[in-house]
Automatic annotation (TrEMBL):
Protein name, as recorded: Zn-dependent metalloprotease
Keywords carried by this UniProt record: Hydrolase, Metal-binding, Metalloprotease, Protease, Signal, Zinc
GO CC annotation terms, alphabetical: membrane
Entry's Gene Ontology BP terms: carbohydrate metabolic process; proteolysis
GO molecular function: calcium ion binding; metalloendopeptidase activity; serine-type endopeptidase activity
Family named by the database record: Belongs to the peptidase M4 family.
Active-site annotation: E146, H237
Stretches for region Disordered: 206-227
Amino acid sequence: SVEEIRSGTGNSQYSGQVQIGTVNNGGVYELTDPERGGHKTYDLTGVGGIGNLVTDDDDVWGDGTLADRQTAAVDAAYGQRETWDFYKERFGRNGIADNGVGAFSRVHYGDNYANAFWDDGCFCMTYGDGRENAHPLTELDISAHEMTHGVTFATANLTYTGESGGLNEATSDIMGTAVEFFADNPADVPDYTIGELADVRGTGKPLRYMDQPSKDASAKGTSQDYWTPETRKLDPHFSSGVANHFFYLLSEGSGKKTINGVAYDSPTYDGLPVAPIGMGNASAIWYRALTTYMTSGTDYAGARTATLQAAADLFGQGSETYEAVGNAWAAVNVGA
Ligand code: ASN
Ligand code: ZN
Ligand code: CA
């Protein structure tokens, strides 16, 4: 049979009604996105291996609640679509490995599993249903975070320990947030927190805060607002805080702000203000640094050099934007 390229209507849990790529394969609609490398979305429940490709009979998917098993698949497929489009439109990147080939997503993993993960081996991402199987980890900034682990693997390949591990994690939070801002989605209002909709810990709070990473303090540990010699000893989800803070400061500037109705207050190590260059510029600098200058062993000092080189390439050495990059690193105690 000849597959017909479709755009299905999805009722997601976190992002309202969305369009998702589908195909009509001989009268059965499949959650396969032919315009994004053939990315497929599977439901893992009750079966081994990669699970069952999600299918439907009328190309209207999910009902926005957990009562419909398709809903989590809609969020995952939508996250994949927005992340693919973000990398393509912003940076000309053609998929995770920049070869036009899609990955795949697996939803309904495990039991009460409050996490999601990317796996370089299967080139796929996997989502648990969260606490009480009621809070799937499929919100947009999380799916873009997981897909970005694949981009990092395919580019700088930052080693997942020490300072390079923190930079790997931060790259996923930075691009996850950039995708949230890129998506035209009134239901999931973009912000500088990570995982704010899935209530991953059951505290009603986000997992991470980019404006002031130390606000994520929990029994498991805490991120730092500023670099110290101890940063490299932290779990990557905490050593990421220094770079997340750099990115927030570079994008939005220091001090108190309200963005899309959310209040932020970003301090600086040196007490000096940082002037904002906007998230579009900041994410372009980070992407170029990641894909052109960072390597597996890049540490915070190396990330500073890499982003300054990227800023010089994109905006000119000594430009205001270039100077802002140096100031934002100084503001998180990463100096020359
Ligand atoms: N969600 C986590 C992450 O992508 C999973 C993990 O800790 N590996 O970082
Ligand atoms: Zn991660
Ligand atoms: Ca967010």
